[in-house]
Amino acid sequence: MQVALLQFNTLWENKQANLQFVQTQINTLPNAVDLVVLPEMFTTGFTMNALHLAEAEQGETLQTLQQLAIKNNVAITGSWIVKENNNFYNRLFFVYPNGTYKTYNKRHLFTLAGEDKTYTAGTNQVLVSYKNWNICLLICYDLRFPVFSRIVNSNYDLLVYVASWPDRRINAWDALLKARAIENMSYVVAVNRCGIDPQNVLYSGHSQIIDFMGEHLVAPYEKEEIQIATLQKEPLQIAREKLAFLNDADAFELLR
């Protein structure tokens, strides 16, 4: 599966400009790309201004990504702000090439920025199946909580993280992504934004792809740039069978 990382400087609370940028970038990708990964809250930046920026689930952003997915025969994933039943969610969408989609609501809300006071937390781990790959969808701060992402009975092959992770803690981002790949014997695809927001928070990107042994297929990079890599399922399966580390994992039950 060929995956494109779309790391860019999200323009603050400017949905139209960000959507236009994403459309332009996706429309210029090679035909061989299977999956495009966008940052967290890619239409607005990591804002708590949900009251004025939230959309209905099937609003403009979803419709735009559905059109792009169908036109380019590609899956697209990224998160944005959704209002549903008078609650706001940091909701990640996985849009298939035929326009159908699945969603995941961010489980771990970033209390340091007051995200928990604006948004409602999700409860369930969400897996999607695509091109014979099982993919676990996660958002930013989820990275710090390994129990929630822990693999069970080899139920996924790929962890996807979309993020707005600041530069001041970028060493943790790099270390934790590698840890998630190694401990779960899974590929990890992680896309972060870059640039500076109006609160003067610097984002240095470090989007990357890591294989099941902790080796980089795409090394962390800082520029506004698209990087593309191919993930191969067979080496993953061989390594899991040969090394069998997952067979020795502790059994547990996740309490919510």
List the helices and strands and how they pair.
Elements: E1 2-7, H1 15-27, E2 35-37, H2 50-53, H3 60-72, E3 75-84, E4 87-95, E5 101-105, H4 115-118, E6 127-130, E7 133-139, H5 146-149, E8 158-163, H6 170-184, E9 187-192, E10 194-196, E11 202-204, E12 207-210, E13 216-221, E14 225-230, H7 233-243
Parallel strand pairs: 1-2, 2-3, 7-8, 8-9
Antiparallel strand pairs: 1-14, 3-4, 4-5, 6-7, 9-12, 10-11, 12-13
Search tags:
six-stranded mixed beta sheet
3D architecture notes:
With 256 residues, the chain is of the alpha/beta class. The chain has a single domain (2-248), classed as Nitrilase/N-carbamoyl-D-aminoacid amidohydrolase. It is built from seven helices and 14 strands. The mean pLDDT is 97.
In short:
The chain is an alpha/beta fold and 256 residues long. Helices cover 25% and strands 30% of the residues.
Oligomer: single chain
The CATH homologous superfamily name equals: Carbon-nitrogen hydrolase
Structural class: alpha/beta
Query: How is the largest sheet built, in terms of strand order?
Result: 5-4-3-2-1-14
What is the general shape?
globular
Strand content: 25-35%
Instruction: Please describe the biggest sheet, giving its number of strands, its sense, and whether it closes into a barrel.
Output: 6 strands, mixed
Tally of separate domains: 1
Radius of gyration: 17 Å
CATH fold annotation:
Nitrilase/N-carbamoyl-D-aminoacid amidohydrolase
CATH class assignment: Alpha Beta
User: What is the helix content?
Assistant: 25-40%
Counting DSSP H or I runs of 4 or more residues, the number of helices is 7
Order of helices and strands: EHEHHEEEHEEHEHEEEEEEH
Poorly predicted regions are none
Report the mean per-residue pLDDT as an integer: 97
Q: Which second-level CATH architecture applies?
A: 4-Layer Sandwich
Distance between the termini: 33 Å
Query: What is the number of strand segments?
Result: 14
